[in-house]
Amino acid sequence: MIEVEKVSRAFGPFRAVDDISFSVKKGEIVGLLGPNGAGKTTTMRMITGFLVPTSGTIKIDGADIETDPEGAKRKIGYMPESAPLYSDMIVEDYLRYVAEVQGVDPGAKVPRLCAMCGLAEVMHKNIGDLSRGYRQRVGLAHALMNDPEILILDEPTSGLDPNQIIEVRELIRDIGKTRTVIISTHILSEVEMLCDRVIIISRGKIVADSPRAELRRRYGHSAALKVQVGGCGPDALASAASGLAGVAGVSPTDGEPGLTAALIAVDGADDIRPAFFELAKTTGWTVYEMAMQKNSLEDVFHSLTTGGAE
Predict the structure, then answer these.
(1) Number of domains within the chain
(2) CA 35, CA 207: separation in Å to the nearest integer?
(3) pLDDT surpasses 50 at 53
(4) CATH code assigned at 146
C-alpha cells in the first residue's frame, strides 16, 4: 500500500529525514517510533503530501504522491498531532461540513462515524468546549470521513489522561482491523499494545524495521538476569559472571545499599541461574536477588537511539 524509497527532506542545511526506505503492506498496523525530533512527523507529512521530499519517491497504492496527488490522497486519512478543528463549530455541524467538502453524503456517514468514534454524547457541543480526548475523537472521525484504506495518526494519544488514552487506543485497535495504519509515537507502551510492526527512526535515519515480536531478538538480547550479591565488588562480579556460558555481557545497575547489583545479558535461550548460583557458592558470595527479566522494547529503543546507534 505504501512505498517509501530513498526519501530525504532538508530544511536548509539540516536533513530532518535522510535517505529512508520502507514499505507497508495492506492491513498492517505499523508504529513509527523515535525520540522527539527524530523525523517522524516530517516523514508522515511527506507520505500524506503536506511536504514535498527533497529527494526520493513515495507511492500510495501505486499512485505517486507528487505526480498524482489526488489519486494518492484519496486513499489516505490523516490526523496530525494537533487536529486542525474549528473550535467555534458544533461537532455535528463540523462533521457535516467536512462530509460536504469531501463529497460524502453527511446523512449517511456522520451517524456512522458518531457511533464508531463514540461521539454521541458531544454531537451537540461546541468543539472548543470539548476535552482533549473528545477532540481527538473528532479528529479521528474527520480522518475517517472519506473511508480511507490507509489511516495515518501522528501522536494520537499525546496530552491525554490515562482513561482517555485507553479509550483512544481501543478505538484505534478497532479501526485498524479493516485498514492499514501508521502510528507515529514516542510512547513505547502504545507500540506494544497496538502495532504489528515497528520502524524506529533516529536522527532522520531508520535504525530498525522489524515485526514487534522479533524486535527484541534482532536488536537486543532476549533476556537478562538481575542479581544482587554481597561479598564482592562490581569488577569482581562482572569478571566472574562474564565467563559463564551463555552470558553476552554484564552491566552494573542500582541495588540495595551495601550490595553489588548487575544485569547479566543472556545470549540465547539458556537459563543461567543454576550456573550463577554455583559461581556464587564457589566464590563465597551471598545471593540476595536473582531474577530473569525479558528484554523490553524500551531497552531496544534506548540502545538504538543513543550513543553509537544514533
Answers:
(1) 2
(2) 12
(3) yes
(4) 3.40.50.300
